[in-house]
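Blinded run. Sample ID left blank on purpose so nobody reads anything into the name before looking at the predicted structure. Input follows.
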Amino acid sequence: MIQIDNLSKKFGSSFAIKDINLSLQKDESVIIMGQNGAGKTTLVRSILGEYIPSSGSVKIEGVNPLKNRQEALKHIALVPQLPPPVKLSVKELIHYAASSSGADEGKIFSLCQDMELDLREHTKKLFFKLSGGMKQKLLIAIALAREPNIFIFDEPTANLDVEGRNSFCKLINSFKEGRLLLFISHRIEEIKTLVNRKLEMDLGKVINDEKI
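Blinded prediction complete.
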């Protein structure tokens, strides 16, 4: 699903990532770990086509995300660590997300309900005024409703309480089959029931790659 060959990215004279080679396939749930500055974010942004590699290449389902970004990204749903500061109401955001991706609005509401969030009480509220946990759940629901082949979750449980993490893990388990899931997280214990492969990064390189 994602093929990365000899990927390097420099900023100035320093490598953020160097000589990354990875093959990430369906039915894999991969956690990418490492300290701040290890290269995790640069790797993900390179996968998404946000950075031009200094060398090497990325292919998403055989498509180069730099040359054909729209085609490549239709296969991916991203849940960022920091919710975007959009000034839309919850209702407007759901409508925009559904109309731009083909997702079903009703499914977004249903998926939020599965995570113990009843959106019907909050549709008129501005998204950026929701609590951190509510924002996270809504963004997760929007991503899942798109039903892509690949999910990328950046610290998905950071704003969730214990019950929220449990419902998140239960929900994600129902979406795993036939897909590739990437988790960027320092909290492997919170998503250990979801992952079957661990990548550890340091100084821009993958220093450990193991099945778990």
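Unblinding after everyone has recorded impressions. The chain has two domains: 2-75+148-211, 86-137.
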